[in-house]
Amino acid sequence: MNTAAMAEEFTTPKRAILTKEDLDRFHNSEAYDKILGFILRLNDSVKGQTLRTESSKSSVVLSLIGLLEELDSWVKGIPPTDDSKSRFGNPAFQAWYDKLNKNAPTLLADLLPSHAIPEVSAYLINSVGNRKRIDYGTGHELHFMAFLLCFEHLGLISAADYPALTLNVFWRYVSLMRSLQFAYWLEPAGSHGVWGLDDYHFLPFMFGASQLANHKYIRPKAIHDPDIIEEFSKDYMYLACIKFINSIKTASLRWHSPMLDDISGVKTWSKISEGMVKMYKAEVLGKLPIMQHFLFGSIIPFEPSGEMPNVDEDDCGHGHAHVVGVHGVAGVQANSFGQEFPACCGIRVPSAIAAAAGREAEGARVVRRPLPFD
Q1: What's the pTM?
Q2: What's the superkingdom here (predicted)?
């Protein structure tokens, strides 16, 4: 155990970003460097490695995997309510979420010093989705990264654990989230849909591109080859995500996932890997509607510029303030590649998983625009 961490005063994490000015300060802060640096170290650790690569697993890593398996097992005991006519989030998710909220301290009791549990557990709880809206997106995924970062801060994991954290712990977390998405039809938070990489996740694509960065044979255009996807989706996160998308959406990537289709035209995975990092900085860490939700405490410190309003129960249910200039008059905002997507507030987007389950075709034709990946 890190002796410094034992003496540290921990706090309950709170939001601290409200305005564009706050976000700019965050980008020049210790917290930003800490979060991004940790993610990039995980990203670098899996270059050339597959999901089936045997990596050493410390007792903490094994415990984290066991924790995620325990959370996954709860889904069977909390079945979705009978609401087959709705493609939106199923309210049974709230019971599952409440169980995690209640039991998180107990689940972490053997992993963490007791005085750190309230702070660290907040990141775990906020990594599984929004209770009120029954949705999930890249901001929740970022909270899971923060959850793992806390373990490094406490001296419970080290650089030697990075490959296992990424290929085993994080990938098990993605599996848990897929279970929740299938069981409770979580809505895509932020309504990115076809304007993003995936309705829910970003990091599996980033880590997956890093895995493939130096591959001798598989090229980016291979995502359109069903045989390669079938054979290698067991080894690479990126290809596994393509397989998942193909399993729940109709037509081709060109129409329902134009960004992924465009990226497949890049010549090398190393270029895609570099582009993914730039895109993550811009599309997740650089987006105010996402970062307004992020929680800061003693481990990831960042102070608000003024008093934060109570935004936990706002009208849109997203728990953030509406700032002039963030959401346009027409209710849309543009991403860093010039593409426009619906604002996250006031627009409910049904789960594509629910659509697939209901045998309903999804996807409208969208304008394809080039991405700066080469």
Answers
A1: 0.85
A2: Eukaryota
